[in-house]
Design brief:
heterotrimer, A mainly alpha, B alpha/beta, C alpha/beta, A: mainly alpha, 68% helix, 0% strand, C: alpha/beta, eight-stranded mixed β-sheet, four-stranded antiparallel β-sheet, 29% helix, globular
Chain lengths: 300, 335, 329
């Protein structure tokens, strides 16, 4: 079987770079993304290998060496970042605190991501009544003040890592739902979706293999934003004493414990504050960068 | 205002547009020349990427900042557009030079009534009272064939159909009695029946008001019916220019002939028969471009096509080809 | 004509359109009592202005929309009774915009093999072979297998879309404006390809287009649609040489052939296309018709048979007071 005269297109016609090449080029040229990614990866490394990296046991108290100044304020290399009011090594607590922050950020974002994406994609794809219900739920959720609800729940159930993760995971899905709904609405109008339906593809196949790959870039961006959001909320809850409970090392808790001595030993607050700031900034830069590099390429 | 009919209203020589890209410079428009007299319609026809839209934006001074425009001359009735300040260009645009875009929704602001927009278009350039401007708006809406014009002034663009919107856009372009209208694919977004109506309107109005028009299109049918003069654009060059009757009656450039063979022509092409094709694609215009850009797709290309290409033909009908007869004799066409 | 491969019997599709937030939904008859039949190997050109219902009709045929009433029969079987997969094996679409009809995140091999995978045809090896053969058929080298749509030109993408439509060897292909997004020189290549494929495989096309020159070139029969109804249907020669319906005449008039000796035609279609939510009374076309009389405003014309189809116009109805047998527009 052959069709004779149809001019076979010239090979030179396929000139454009592959999507992967475009992605690689965009990533290597994006300073913000590279910086954010580097900071996040370093902190991830630190969190994973905390037991190997921490110079001391973060729980070990030593009443003889309380409130030792960090090395840049005249302290010794025994405690590079000094010790807190119970004599615990500040650097070690900071390193273990990274575990708490990243764990809460990642798991809370994952839980809310699954809930919000399922709701948003269903609303965008099926429309009609499903959309009306989801939109109503989003509005209900947006009417609830996250911090107050989290405070109330933690106050009733008691603060612990699991409770904080659970509460944040169940509260932060709104942005996922809103963005995924809008993205799905946009993509489902494309003709390749109609083509897949006309082929006889099942609904789950259309959603998973035709729609999802085209909205996953937006999903990644929201994941990073919500991760940063969850990390900040955890710090806030811990600061208020309703998050992770002592003596677990958490950056929010460290700030909270240091605040009494803030006027005399400001580094107790500054060090965890700066690290928290750096992590959130890096995650946001990473999210912004991912949005830029995964944006659909122009036609021309 | 003195109206010298022997001098062109718009005279462009050696217009070049370069777009610096990461991979090199894109030579989007490469030294084009054309003259346009008052009341004349020039159609620039070409496929996507030929540079025809950029050419119209270059005349309007509406190019993106990163596009480098060079020209030996761009004379609009005594004003050298290449040296005109932004302020001078703003004064010309919408007043003496008007533009009509493809999608009427983008040229009408959805937040204002069409009356407000028409009145504003006039009062931006003329110190006239609102009532005078309003009267002019009604007059022009009637002229473009909109019934109950006075009552339409209070309507918003989204309340009108696509065809009506394009009529409003045309009325808006005519508010200041321009001398030149640049229309970029004005009917591409419209249905065929509406397209014919709008084109008829444009042709009638430009003749009646003695307005010159540059019409950018990809549709050879539109060109043939509307144009006094035709410019066939390929890869940033006007490969053939001339009076419409001559270009369609005796197309000289192999590309022009190729295009005409690609479209089914009722009564001429056999129903269900095979249409002509132009194999290959437009070459990349990034980096140095030499010789005839069409040679990669031309069935008659020779080695000479890679060198300097002479301008052929007489004053009014010119084309760029190494063959003195544009390879007509090779194709067995009458000379 | 052989037994019809595709038949539509009184197909209608009504949407309920809400006007404003608290408005009562109003019915919109997108497709209004359409009956058509296509013989094997025929190309039925479907023409009409935007909003006339031709895309809705295409969606019904593809099983993407359920008709409100009426029947669609493929080889004499109602497609409501068949499952979606069986329908998909027989009817496949080619869409207008090759930039939107191919998933940008998939390789060409993935896109073209999707129908085979959905229908569970063959193993990976035989599927790959089938993809290569089909690509060759539409004039694409096997080298394109691992490229992405964004790397291709518009014409190449449309070839990929054609390959995807043909890989299951359907009987009927719904071509929805398949060349209107393409450049002139590419359009002719695609039209030639569609013609060759039809001759080779005996395909039946429903060819939807607003470009009447293209329809005249490719179609064997033409149906003209106005506000959800087929107002005239005839063999291509009859319709283009002797249009009966005034609307058909207006459409034919608006075709701009590249003949500089002719000016822009006057279509004599005064007002704009009516709002389908509140269609004009009687004959829907009467507000735009230069021949309309009082009867046209009150009574809808009935379909009158003509060679290869029918026409809905009082001027051609022998039982009508307006009947003018000599009327040729």
């Amino acid at each position: 079987m052959s069709v004779k005269k149809t001019t076979a297109p010239l090979m030179e016609e396929i000139t454009g770079p592959t999507p992967r090449q475009i992605l690689r080029k965009r990533v290597t040229g994006h300073t913000g993304l590279l910086f954010g990614l580097a900071v996040v990866l370093i902190l991830l490394f630190v969190a994973i290998f905390a037991p190997l990296l921490a110079p001391h046991d973060p729980y070990a108290q030593s009443l003889s060496s309380r409130m030792v100044s960090p090395v840049f304020l005249g302290g010794t290399w025994e405690h590079p970042l000094g010790t807190d009011h119970l004599g615990r090594d500040y650097l070690s607590r900071l390193i273990y605190g990274a575990r708490v922050s990243l764990l809460i950020g990642a798991v809370a974002a994952a839980i809310s991501g699954v809930i919000g994406t399922a709701m948003g994609v269903a609303a965008g794809y099926f429309g009609g009544k499903v959309d009306a219900v989801v939109t109503f739920l989003i509005n209900v959720r947006l009417a609830m003040p996250v911090v107050l609800v989290a405070l109330a729940v933690v106050a009733i159930l008691g603060g612990s890592l699991q409770v904080v993760i659970g509460v944040l995971g169940l509260l932060l899905w709104d942005r996922f739902a809103v963005v995924m709904r809008a993205s799905t609405l946009q993509v489902r109008r494309r003709e390749y979706v109609a083509a897949a339906q006309a082929i006889g593809a099942s609904t789950s196949r259309v959603i998973l293999s035709e729609i999802m790959p085209n909205i996953v870039n937006n999903l990644i961006v929201i994941v990073t934003l919500e991760m940063a959001h969850a990390i900040l909320l955890e710090a806030a809850l811990s600061f208020l004493g309703l998050g992770v409970q002592p003596p677990t090392p958490s950056w929010g808790l460290m700030i909270s414990e240091g605040k009494n001595m803030m006027l005399f030993e400001p580094w107790l607050v500054l060090i965890p504050g700066v690290v928290l700031f750096m992590l959130v900034l890096a995650i946001n830069l990473m999210g912004d960068g991912l949005r830029d590099v995964t944006a659909p390429e122009n036609r021309s | 205002m003195s109206k010298d009919m022997t001098k062109p209203l718009l005279s462009v020589r050696g217009l070049t547009l370069d777009i610096p890209l990461a991979r090199g410079t894109l030579h989007a428009v490469r030294g084009i020349d054309f003259d346009l007299y008052r009341g004349e319609t020039l159609c620039i026809v070409g496929e996507s990427g030929s540079g025809k839209s950029l050419t119209s934006l270059a005349v309007m001074g509406l190019l993106d900042k990163n596009i480098q425009r060079r020209a030996e001359r761009m004379d609009f009735d005594g004003t050298e557009l290449t040296r005109a300040s932004n302020r001078q260009m703003r004064a010309l645009r919408g007043d003496r030079i008007a533009m009509i875009f493809q999608e009427p929704m983008t040229s009408l602001n959805p937040a204002y009534t069409i009356g407000d927009q028409l009145i504003e278009a006039l009062r931006l350039h003329r110190s006239v009272s609102r009532d005078t401007a309003r009267a002019r708006a009604v007059e022009l809406l009637e002229k473009v064939g909109i019934s109950a014009a006075a009552s339409r002034l209070g309507q918003y663009p989204h309340q009108l159909s696509g065809g009506l919107r394009q009529r409003v856009v045309i009325a808006m372009a005519l508010m200041c009695e321009p001398e030149l209208i640049i229309a970029d694919e004005p009917t591409t977004a419209l249905d065929v029946t509406i397209q014919a109506q709008i084109l008829r309107l444009l042709v009638d109005l430009t003749k009646e008001m003695d307005v010159a028009m540059i019409l950018i299109t990809h549709d050879l049918g539109v060109v043939a019916r509307v144009a006094d003069k035709v410019g066939v654009m390929y890869a940033g060059e006007l490969v053939e220019t001339g009076p419409a009757a001559e270009v369609f009656g005796k197309p000289m450039h192999p590309y022009t002939r190729g295009l005409l063979r690609c479209i089914p022509q009722p009564g001429m092409t056999e129903r269900g028969g095979e249409l002509g094709t132009i194999p290959g694609i437009v070459p990349s215009l990034i980096g140095a471009v030499q010789g005839c850009a069409f040679r990669t797709r031309c069935p008659h290309a020779t080695e000479a096509c890679g060198g300097e290409i002479p301008v052929r033909g007489e004053q009014s009908h010119r084309f760029l080809c190494v063959y003195a007869d544009g390879a007509r004799s090779v194709e067995g066409e009458p000379a | 004509m052989s037994a019809p491969v595709l038949e539509l019997k009184n197909v209608a599709k009504t949407y309920r359109v809400k006007q404003g937030m608290f408005g009562k939904p109003k019915p919109l008859n997108a497709v209004n009592d359409v009956s058509l039949s296509l013989g094997r190997g025929e190309v039925l050109g479907l023409v009409g202005e935007s909003g006339c219902g031709k895309s809705t009709l295409a969606k019904i045929l593809l099983g993407l929309e359920e008709p409100t009433s009426g029947q669609v029969l493929v080889d004499g079987e109602a497609i409501g009774g068949q499952d979606r997969l069986a329908l998909a094996r027989r009817i496949q679409p080619i869409f207008q915009d090759p930039y939107s009809s191919l998933n940008p995140r998939k390789t060409i091999a993935d896109i073209v093999s999707l129908p085979l995978r959905v229908h569970g045809v063959g193993d990976a090896k035989s599927r790959a072979k089938s993809v290569r053969e089909t690509l060759e058929l539409v004039g694409l080298p096997a080298r394109v297998l691992n490229t992405y749509p964004s790397q291709m030109s518009g014409g190449q993408r449309q070839r990929v879309a054609i390959a995807r439509a043909l890989i299951m060897h359907p009987e009927i292909v719904i071509c929805d404006e398949p060349t209107s997004a393409l450049d002139v020189s590419v359009q002719s290549q695609i039209l030639n390809l569609l013609n060759e494929l039809r001759a080779e495989f005996g395909l039946t096309y429903l060819f939807i287009s607003h470009d009447l020159a293209v329809v005249e070139h490719l179609a064997t029969r033409v149906a003209v649609m106005y506000l959800g109804r087929i107002v005239e249907e005839a063999d291509v020669g009859d319709l283009f040489d002797a249009p009966r319906h005034p609307y058909t005449r207006a459409l034919l008039n608006s075709v701009l052939t590249p003949d500089p000796s002719l000016g822009v035609p006057d279509t004599q279609l005064g007002s704009a296309y009516p709002n389908p939510i509140s269609p004009p009374s009687g004959c829907h076309f009467h507000p735009r018709c230069p021949f309309a009389e009082t009867l046209c405003k009150t009574k809808a014309p009935r379909p009158v048979p003509r060679a290869g189809g029918h026409v809905e116009c009082h001027l051609h109805d022998p039982d009508s007071t307006m009947y003018r047998p000599d009327f040729t527009v």
